[in-house]
Amino acid sequence: MQYIIFFLFIFISLPIFAFQVQPMVSEIQPIGSQSQQTIRVLNNSDKPLTVEISAFDLLVNGNGQEELRPNEDDFLIIPLTTIIPEGKTQSVIIRYIGEPILPKSKAYRIAINQVRVDLGELDGSGVGMALSFKTLLNVVPKDAKAKLVIKNKEQFDKNTWKVSLDNKGNKFIRLSQAKWVVKSKDQVFILEGQKLSSALDGKFLLPNSSSEVLIKIPSEFNAKTSDLEVVL
pTM above 0.85? Predict the structure, then answer.
């Protein structure tokens, strides 16, 4: 019990958000004046904050789950590492320097990682804690468009559907930002916003790709006898 109380004390004593990052979602173009984004990192703590910034390719597997792959070539990041005084904000420039002519949009995660804080002096165990934010950055060629096609839907369990989707366009789709409309006879069920994000296990559909996602739907709506529309 003493150990449980001790670790609860450590958790409660730490700031819930030692720093904030804005924006968390952004879209830029592959060339020209719109090919960079400024990310602002605010140090909310009462101590200097050291952060490191890195980029990752965002991939999505066939089950709609994210996979990240380090990418050091597509971006110029200034600065890569910085120390932010307490209560201050640091601007970080993220400039795309990858392939200038893109046939389709590319999705990335930009990670802002707090350098590991060593708490070993508290108990001699060397325990460390740190925070990490991963923003979403999409590089989108001019006039790129998404085109969503619902290929199939089936009942996965009593309150869950499995939906097969295609994006036949050349721009990414944020599935959690759409409106999902289910109709059955005289009943209509709409999912959007935070409720949709909580009900949906797959968040992205990359250009020219397919994916299967699970979504929570009330049991009175059956996948076989109901209609589904996803409004982007």
Answer: no
